[in-house]
Give the backbone structure.
Amino acid sequence: MKVLGACPLDCPDACSWVVTVEDGVATGLRGNKEHPVTRGALCVKVNRYLEQVGAPGRLRYPMRRVGPKGSGQFERISWDAALDEITTRVTGIIDEFGGEAIWPFHGTGSLGYLQGLEGFPGRRMFNLLGASHHAPTICSVAGGAGLRYTLGTSGGMDPEDFAQSKLILLWGTNPLTSGHHLWKFVQDSGAYLVSIDPVRTRTSERCDEHIAPLPGTDAALALGLLHVIVSLGAQDEQFIAEHTEGWPEFRDRIAEFTPERTAAITGVPRDRIVALGERIARTRPTAIRASQGMQRHAGGGMALRVLACLPGVTGDWAIPGGGLHYSTSGHFELDVAALTRDDLLPHPVRTLSMTRLGEALLETDEPPVKALFVIGANPVGSNPDQRRVIEGLSREDLFTVVLEHFDTDTVDYADIVLPATMQPEHLDVLAGYGHLYLIWNEPAVAPPGECLSTTETFRRLSQRLGLTEPALYDSDEELAAQLLKGYDLDRLRADGFLKVQAGPVPAGKLQFVSTRAQSAGHDPLPDYTPPADSGDGLVLISAASHYFLNSTFGSNPELRRRAGESSITLHPDDAAARGIADGAAVVVSNDRGSFEAVAEISDRVRPGVAGTTKGRWAKFTGGATVNATIAERDADYGGGAVFHDNRVEVRPR
């Protein structure tokens, strides 16, 4: 039997896949050849997904902590015992502190609309309890906000249109590691390819040109390129007149970023800035692919504002194969409000920021956070300021429930662990943020042991809490129908995927001057915002690993073997100045924390920059990872994370 499904992981490609089932067992997994983006191919990580599903270390039964927090010592218990204990603790917390003392902490372990982050499973129940809301700020919020100020939408060009481009700027993105299906359309184009990245990545090595700016200076580089374009008179005056507002003011701002000034800020030689600006000026259509990594710094939202303006000046927004692709999420008109049912709230509640977990657990009061439900997340492995996150999770008065597949670093701090189903075992609906397809995930096999879907877990907990609201007990099929109102659900389920219509970009006139940004306290004009972590040391980039996806697969033995030891790449000049040889054991540190790694000396990073990858588990790397050095600090817009606005020192161990 062949069962159509979808990859749930935090990747733009949201692959359509086919599960082969024999005698009730999943025996094969491949990409769906019929899907226009997946085209039959999965990534090196997801090719091992069935291995994960059947892994010996998978959690299959509810557990209760029996040792100190952090020890990872648990005993198996029944679902009845687990639900009874959760009910007793939650009702006691509500009676003493109120519902806002409960925080449902959702992560990107699944991007499903029923079982994962996109639909906030359990939120109906938490709303009835008056729990705090959760702001998922860890990924792309700053860039999305910047795009909305400029374009009126966070949706951009259809990635399939890259096949029509003549010049492609891969800006702060490494699709051969993170979202490799875009590369097929890039190759089909025959375009001149420019990688703009502080690190020479797998993708950079396949491009015609690689430009390495200092991290966090992307907005300045874009403004410098615009200076060259405008100096040549290559702006599209007709597009500007008909489709934009605020051009005279923005033109004055562009004039401030001469090639000389831009070179001083970015570390990119003046001649290369001028040459690329001239290439953009004479090449239509030009497309930009910018991904989430480039906006994880103090000026991340502003950087996306500037990038969105570039095709507004050249007129590329009006040309097929031109424009900017950041995320297609803004094009999906799904009724998420019907899933979350915020109308069930008894009163307004506060919102807690995902990337401020340590601060919230240690400092928030009125009320303090007393119960934490961790759903599809591994904050010990993925959140900034690892030390403070661990300190907060170690509180004896914090009741922590974790829904998980494996014994992650975060599971070690749980009071109750609930075993969750994986993708071939439950119903879900996905939407790619790197394409325009809805994807249906049909359950293919029964879950192992006593694993339950996230939706079923909260249905059972709602019943144990004595809640009578009928909406809490909607089936997964009913939830899908509510989400997909206006779409042909039967066709989606039968075919496995359905392409949606992209809305216009810009949505209205492109705002070179944004009154909305101004009213929110920001500069109405796009500008360059310097990194916040300035001073001595190296700027540390912690990019996506080729073998892990965030911290998913971090316990997979084969992928850990292929990833090798935790390493940090240093430019030869920086290594020599510190007396560090290739292969040497080093300590990477700042005033927030430290982690251990092995030095790799290479010119793949520019001077002043160090490179490592995220996704490792602390329990396998000496008790700390790169996130021990990351600040719990907000980007300029939306409270986004600042993983790449991080200075460290590196010394021999």
Q: What stands out?
A: The chain has a mean pLDDT of 98.
